[in-house]
Amino acid sequence: MVDIKELNERIQRESAxxxxxxxxxxxxxxxxxHMVDRLLIGLLSNGHILLEGVPGLAKTLAINTLAKCVxxxxxxxxxxxxxxxxxxxxxxxxxxxxxxxxxxxxxxxxNFVLADEINRAPAKVQSALLEAMQEKQVTxxxxxxxxxxxxxxxxxxxxxxxxxxxxxxxxxxxxxxxxVVINYPNKEEERRIIxxxxxxxxxxxxxxxxxxxxxxKARAVVKDVYMDEKIERYIVDIVFAxxxxxxxxxxxxxxxxxxxxxxxxxxxLALAAKAYAFIKRRGYVIPEDVRAVCPDVMRHRxxxxxxxxxxxxxxxxxxxxxxxxxxxx
Length: 329
Prior knowledge:
Layout: H1 4-14, H2 16-28, H3 33-44, E1 48-52, H4 59-70, E2 74-78, H5 85-89, E3 90-95, E4 100-105, E5 112-116, H6 123-135, E6 137-140, E7 143-146, E8 152-157, H7 170-173, E9 176-181, H8 187-198, H9 212-223, H10 229-243, E10 257-259, H11 263-279, H12 287-298, E11 303-304, H13 306-310, H14 315-325
Parallel strand pairs: 1-8, 1-9, 2-5, 5-8
Antiparallel strand pairs: 3-4, 6-7, 10-11
Helix pairs in contact: 2-4, 3-11, 10-11, 11-12, 12-14
């Protein structure tokens, strides 16, 4: 049996750094609480994140700030149609003096990799990134190199501009733990953004509050967060409702869903719920944790039919209906 009281006290001690990290992020990022929370969930549960929003919503700034707070290596890769896999992972270079090939590592060898406008790069580059994301390793020539730990890919895509873009294949979308949609700030947040940008002292710089090793240790603690079997069944029901809507009295969605969440959706929903409970300084998962992270975990894992698109039905609408219909333990 798990001693919930003891576990709760331990998690509260171990999660103290979350507040420090949030304070440092808030120095630079005005508002966008949802995005900052989701970045922390990805960081704590070893999952990659896809951020979608129009330009100028501090996506790049948020990722850069997080890397500074964790004292990790940060590299930004601007994805373009002429990008090659070698520009991402590195290549072999011939050394004339030594008469042999040497390896030059690419920008993927960092703790935090920002794949900016990921949908602008062709399939070859996407597949090179896919190996790095899934296997946490890179193959250059006949040599394989492990990527640093922690390794986190934070990709951005612009939903407005679709000319000259390569839509991400479903297999790659599924590799992202979360797809976070970012909206505009409110009026007061926008005023604070203006004030911080025109201030004579300039933008405040975040302080280092963690080392990469601390994140690796924190991930082990997050896995210890208690999840009851009832919550596990609840997660399975949510995912199965997207695959077999008729079994959950959601017949109206049967012609609108072309495919539901994969087993990776169930795993990531459980991991994200544990990380969310950890951020909330709790040693156990409650149904509200699952409901809070569900839209970001499931958003990119449900395929819509042409009929759904014609009726303007979004994946968010389907997820909300599923959450309202599936019985909460």
